[in-house]
């Protein structure tokens, strides 16, 4: 194996891990509020990607400014995340007190609906808007020429979100309220926290993270039907391996899965798609509660 | 004769918080031990260690002469130590009768995937238990529809169905109204007497302790502060001050 | 007794419809196959668990039928069905031993993950599996008879009907047994189950193997009736369809799975014509509506009366 391939695989992996982390983080966030896995999170990713690409096509054409492109990407993601997140939240509220399995299936139903909506709006032809990648240019790293967008921007955005979120949850009032509500809704409500408002905020933040992942992925992957389905499974693999609710854990696991996947692409392409699943199965086999979770006994 | 339940130097700490502090304890066959203590004194922790829910960081538990330290709840139950719960643990979507029938099958340890549930026990033994816990009239009610007092009774009934050597009752009268408390205890004690089960019960109500216990152990900060007959322990000034709050 | 008569009557009606309208034969066989698989999901629902990967058992069974049929063309269709199902049972035993340690989301997604591994492997190793084109299944003999297409389909329908009746009766019997009641207890209170000295894992494992075998049976029959197996048979969307049918029919009674499957096939036939491009959208919307108004599925409509009767018996 030449060192070029090694570096290439590493850079691909890191960039991919950045996207994976954002989406998985959103999934964990939403899980914190509704205590169920939001299967429709994959749709948020897909809609984020398509939304950002559409904005780029409408307003970004003819502009050479990378700043404009980036702004369009992010605003597309936020718009999609807020709208779809609100829709999902309102839908799930109708099923609040139901069996968790049924709630899970409601998100599955929503996912099926979104999947077709996406096909109706954007068609089945691949979508690809890569202006921003070209605008940001390339760098050379140890003999390998690599896109700045994947080298710096995506991992940078993921890290920025990570640190911002850490700071937000630890140091701001709203952040602490989110932690409190996620930890124990009843106690938090008793302490005078508006659990509903905080719950909505958390849900929407999670949704925006999911669609941001899609938006950042859009310039480097072609958008086709089915990307949402792949992503929900992948991001679940990250969340499950890390342990539900583990932010730093999700970052590390996303790196693990992202890197092993990209090494597979270069070394054993047959196993590329299988790799994340294998890692998840392996992790859960050894540590059923996830890599970074501390086990707690249930009160009886 | 060896003790039925014996612990030596039983210790458990969560971080810096010591919830069981070198407990040496033994219980003979036929005793009715009341466990008293303030909330957080370590009563339930002690029970959880004995029944296998928690693993001690040091010390041993032995039951009927066998070391059961660190065994799973299931293994310990199968050796003859059953427990009831502070919050009744029932199969909410099954009927009262089905819960008892399932417990009866569990006693034999052989589940069948073909024979009907009711075939795993005799009609009479289920009826007898229903009478014993005064739930005959409600036998076809789903558990989810039972009021708290009856849930408690069924919870204990399911454990009794296992015909245990030792039954640990975690606050059998908590959540039950004051008027009902004595009624519930009467029914429980009658059931225990009938099957000659040795019992430990966690209890806050001094009247109930006086009336039904043959022995009392008082817990203070993860250790037994006093152990003896009800009269002795309840007259102990330390216990009166620290546990009973008089 | 009455329910047995009712089931037999339903079987006769289905057979009558198939003979009167020959073009309905294959849709009926397929919907009964879906019903068998959905019945497998119903077993898991009983324990409060859901799997988004059970199509893999149908897929495993289908491929075994295809491979064995290719290499031993003399084997009878019935033997192939048995072998395919056996393969799923073995796979279910192995995978089950691992996944029964998990609940709810983890249980569902692990099944999904394992099924995706299988799906990918089947698609990638072209020389062995024919890739996404799949493997053809030549029409085998049925009970020793070499049949042309039409009688073969009728024969297959009879086999599927008989197996569906047996499966319904067997699963219903299992639900009422102590093992089945313990399975239902996993849903409401696993802690208590352990404190009765019952291993919840072991109970769930048995239910899991049963559900895998039902999906396997379904896959073998599906493959034989289509004459083709493809990796699509194990794709997560297929698993999702099984779940959908199970929810539609409800977990109250084993027959629900078949009622759900017939309705589903009917819906698919008509809705696909009316709104060809938005089939998933309709399904998703129906799923949500059913969960909202009929959380216990179609059989839940009759469940209350039945429950009271069963209690008094």
UniProtKB/TrEMBL annotation, chain A:
It is a multi-pass membrane protein. The chain crosses the membrane at residues 6-31, 43-60, 66-92, 104-122, 149-169, 198-217, 274-295. Keywords: Amino-acid transport, Cell membrane, Membrane, Transmembrane, Transmembrane helix, Transport. Signal peptide: none annotated. InterPro entries: ABC_transp_permease, BCAA_transport_permease. It is found in: Cell inner membrane. GO terms for cellular component: plasma membrane. Its main location: membrane. One of its GO terms (molecular function) is transmembrane transporter activity. GO terms for biological process: amino acid transport. Belongs to the binding-protein-dependent transport system permease family. LivHM subfamily. This is Branched-chain amino acid ABC transporter permease.
UniProtKB/TrEMBL annotation, chain B:
PROSITE patterns: ABC_TRANSPORTER_2. Gene3D superfamilies: P-loop containing nucleotide triphosphate hydrolases (3.40.50.300). Keywords: ATP-binding, Nucleotide-binding, Transport. InterPro entries: AAA+_ATPase (IPR003593), ABC_AA/LPS_Transport (IPR051120), ABC_transporter-like_ATP-bd (IPR003439), P-loop_NTPase (IPR027417). GO terms for cellular component: plasma membrane. SMART domains: AAA (SM00382). Residues 5-246 form the ABC transporter domain. It comes from the Bacteria. GO terms for molecular function: ATP binding; ATP hydrolysis activity. This is ABC transporter ATP-binding protein. It comes from Pseudomonas alkylphenolica.
Automatic annotation (TrEMBL), chain C:
The keyword Membrane applies. It holds the Pfam family BPD_transp_2. It is a multi-pass membrane protein. Coiled coil: none annotated. CDD domains: TM_PBP1_LivM_like. One of its GO terms (molecular function) is branched-chain amino acid transmembrane transporter activity. This is Branched-chain amino acid ABC transporter permease. It comes from Pseudomonas alkylphenolica.
